[in-house]
C-alpha cells in the first residue's frame, strides 16, 4: 500500500495486520479522489472506519488541512498511529481516536466539529450506512455542500437518502463508491 499523490505521494503505508479489516485498494482510492478532488485547498476530512488510515492520509496529502481518523479496533489504531508518522506533522494534521463510530459522531458534535468530507467504509457484514448517514445529518456534521463518500460491497444497495442528493455511484468490481451531497 502507498499514498498515491500529493505531498506524501509514493510513501508506503502498512495495512492493518490480520483479516479483520479490508483496505481500500490503491485503484479505488485513486478513483475516489479523482471524483471528489483530486486536490484540495484546506478543509476537514473525517474517516469513521479508518482501518489503516490510508484514505484520510491521502486526503491530507492532497491538501486537506486536517483529518480525524476513527477506528475502534486496537490493531487499526496502532497501524494508523504508525502510518501518520510519514507526515512528520501527525499532531497538527491528524486526530486519531480509538472509539466506535456512534460515540465518535456524538463526541464530534459536542466539540462543534464540521467536515467537508466524511468517508464511511464500515465492515461489510455490519453495515448500517443509512443509520450513519442519518446521524451525520441529524448531528449536522457536514459543512454546506459537504460530501459523504460511502464504500460498500456490490451486494449493498443504499440508493436515495433523506437529507442528501445522490451525486455519483461507481462500481469497481466487488466495491461500489457512492457519493452524497448534503442538501
UniProtKB/TrEMBL annotation:
<dbReference type="InterPro" id="IPR004398">
    <property type="entry name" value="RNA_MeTrfase_RsmD"/>
</dbReference>
<dbReference type="InterPro" id="IPR029063">
    <property type="entry name" value="SAM-dependent_MTases_sf"/>
</dbReference>
<dbReference type="Pfam" id="PF03602">
    <property type="entry name" value="Cons_hypoth95"/>
</dbReference>
<protein>
    <submittedName>
        <fullName>Uncharacterized protein</fullName>
    </submittedName>
</protein>
<keyword id="KW-0808">Transferase</keyword>
<dbReference type="GO" id="GO:0031167">
    <property type="term" value="P:rRNA methylation"/>
</dbReference>
<dbReference type="GO" id="GO:0003676">
    <property type="term" value="F:nucleic acid binding"/>
</dbReference>
<keyword id="KW-0489">Methyltransferase</keyword>
<dbReference type="GO" id="GO:0008168">
    <property type="term" value="F:methyltransferase activity"/>
</dbReference>
<feature type="region of interest" description="Disordered">
    <location>
        <begin position="1"/>
        <end position="23"/>
    </location>
</feature>
<dbReference type="InterPro" id="IPR002052">
    <property type="entry name" value="DNA_methylase_N6_adenine_CS"/>
</dbReference>
Amino acid at each position: 500500500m502507498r499514498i498515491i499523490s500529493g505531498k506524501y505521494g509514493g510513501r508506503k503505508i502498512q495495512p492493518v495486520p490480520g483479516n479483520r479489516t479490508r483496505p481500500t485498494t490503491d485503484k479505488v482510492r485513486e478513483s475516489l479522489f479523482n471524483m471528489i478532488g483530486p486536490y484540495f485547498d484546506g478543509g476537514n476530512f473525517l474517516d469513521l472506519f479508518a482501518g489503516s488510515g490510508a484514505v484520510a492520509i491521502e486526503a491530507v496529502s492532497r491538501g486537506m488541512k486536517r483529518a480525524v481518523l476513527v477506528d475502534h479496533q486496537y490493531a487499526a489504531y496502532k497501524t494508523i498511529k504508525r502510518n501518520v508518522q510519514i507526515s512528520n506533522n501527525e499532531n497538527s494534521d491528524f486526530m486519531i481516536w480509538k472509539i466506535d463510530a456512534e460515540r465518535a459522531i456524538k463526541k464530534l458534535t459536542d466539540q462543534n466539529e464540521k467536515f467537508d468530507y466524511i468517508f464511511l467504509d464500515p465492515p461489510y457484514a455490519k453495515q448500517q450506512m443509512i443509520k450513519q448517514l442519518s446521524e451525520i445529518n441529524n448531528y449536522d456534521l457536514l459543512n454546506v455542500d459537504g460530501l459523504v463518500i460511502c464504500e460498500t460491497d456490490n451486494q449493498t444497495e443504499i440508493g436515495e437518502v433523506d437529507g442528501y442528493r445522490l451525486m455519483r455511484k461507481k462500481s469497481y468490481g466487488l466495491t461500489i463508491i457512492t457519493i452524497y451531497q448534503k442538501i
